[in-house]
Amino acid sequence: MTQQHPARTEGRNQRSRQAVVRLLRERGTLSRAEIARAVGLSPSTVSTLVAALVADGTVLERPEALTPAGGRAGRPGTAVMLNPAGGEAIGVDFGYRHVHVVIADVTHAVQIARSAPLPADYDASLGLDTAAELVRSAVRDAGTDPARILGVGVSLPGAYNPHTALPNSGLPSRWSGIPVAAELSRRLELPVLADNDANLGALAERQWGAGTGFDELVYIKLHSTVGAAFISNGRLTRGAAGGAGEIGHLVMDANGPLCRCGNRGCLESYVGLPQLMRALEPGYGDRITLRDVITKAWQGDRGCIRALSEAGKTAGRAVGMLSTVLNPAAVVIGGALAQAGELLLGPLRESAQAAGLPPAGTSLRILPAALGDQACALGAVALVLGQAGQTPMPTVV
Question: Are 281 and 288 in contact (CB under 8 A)?
Fold first, then answer.
């Protein structure tokens, strides 16, 4: 009988242990059976690993039982979670007029959330200084031990190149050429990871929101700009230069309005929030807000209903194209425009089904995002938790 070499056996056990811990960091509380399926280990091996992790304090078992995932028959499993004492992750979301910070522990429980306003078109230096001070105050207020912070994740409102660790300079931006992660790391003296807002919104919605359970998923953020993120086989797809998902610059009409990218008729030129609001100004004045538009639409205002419906139809054409190419199981619609609910999503679904080829278009589920304006900051937390425990943790993506 062939005997296993002790060093090889120990190495395999260590890798399996790291896989279980990484899974719990990424997905939170799970049953032993869910862990076994996710990491491809036998139930008996997972039970042995979990027992060892419980013994050394890395993992806790919760007394309440978990119902088998997907409603499958079988005995409920005991809940397994990382020990909250294992550390915290910080998420920073740079919006167009704000910076938002959350601190969450390794079980994904949010400890504190803070926001600060920023002027329109603020530069990188002001944004980074404001974020650093907001992080420091949140750490103080939450009573977080700085030694337990696993890292900081940053959500940026635009394309981000993971290879250069710089915001993409392909579009006008006051952040172009600024090494955001490195600059914030210098201010905070903590490791920092960065990615764009759509990618991190997708991570958050898949782990905690409307995208839970979908391994083939598209997330679309309809906001001041329009972006998307693609999850395939449960993993985020960033593209060769981090530019995957820039659907705001899909040309919908070559003779359409001029876009900031230099093309005409881009999707963003029709459904971007500034463009939508400008189209309403002649009838409603220049002080009307998106909240006003949605409220008036629900009250029956035909002009506001029409504006949201047309935005939904145009976005739906793009969703239909994506469903034909990518065949996702679900599309999650987030960003400020998603607050319009069915006023936007109803026309969007109808248009997407018409534009998508069967079976992709007919089987597609189009869902509203569930995490609201915290999605990107929570996705930044997810980015850190997904990297934590890997050696070494990079300063930048």
Answer: yes
The tokens of 83 are what? 């020990």
CA distances from 312 to 79, 267, 342, 349, 384 (A): 41, 11, 9, 8, 33
Three-state DSSP class for residue 65: strand
What Å distances lie between residue 226 and 127, 213, 217, 311, 329, CA to CA? 21, 25, 17, 12, 21
Q: What is the pLDDT of residue 328?
A: 94
Q: Is pLDDT larger for residue 10 or for residue 349?
A: 349
For 87-200+377-387, the fitting CATH number among 2.40.160.60, 3.90.320.10, 3.40.225.10, 3.30.420.40 is 3.30.420.40
Q: 262 by DSSP, 3-state: which?
A: coil
| 210-370, CATH topology level | Nucleotidyltransferase; domain 5 (3.30.420)
Residue 102 contacts residue 115 (beta carbons within 8 Å): no
Task: Give the closest residue to 33 by CA, choosing from 20, 18, 22.
Answer: 20
Distance CA 367, CA 331 (A): 6
Domain spans in the chain, listed from the N-terminal domain onward: 13-66+77-82, 87-200+377-387, 210-370
Distant-in-sequence, close-in-space partners of 25: CB < 8 Å, separation ≥ 6: 82, 106, 385, 386, 388, 389
Overall average pLDDT of the 114-124 stretch:
92
Give the CB-side neighbour count of residue 332, counting CA atoms within 13 A. Answer: 32
Q: Which two tokens stand for residue 227?
A: 């972006």
Which residue's structure tokens are 């739906």?
316
**Where is 193: in which H helix or E strand?**
strand 192-196
Say if strands 217-222 and 365-368 run parallel, antiparallel, or are unpaired: unpaired
* Alpha-carbon distance values, 364 to 199, 212, 219, 318 (Å): 20, 15, 13, 14
From CA 387, how far away is CA 397, in angstroms rounded?
A: 10
Q: Give the pLDDT confidence of 79-90 residue by residue, as tens digits.
A: 888 777 788 999
pTM, two decimals, is 0.83
* Degrees to nearest 5, angle at CA 26 with 21 and 32: 55
Asked if residue 162 lies in contact with residue 397, where contact means CB atoms within 8 angstroms, the answer is yes
Residues β-bridged to residue 194: 154
Q: Which residues pair with 92 in a beta bridge?
A: 101, 154
179 φ, ψ to 5°? -75, 80
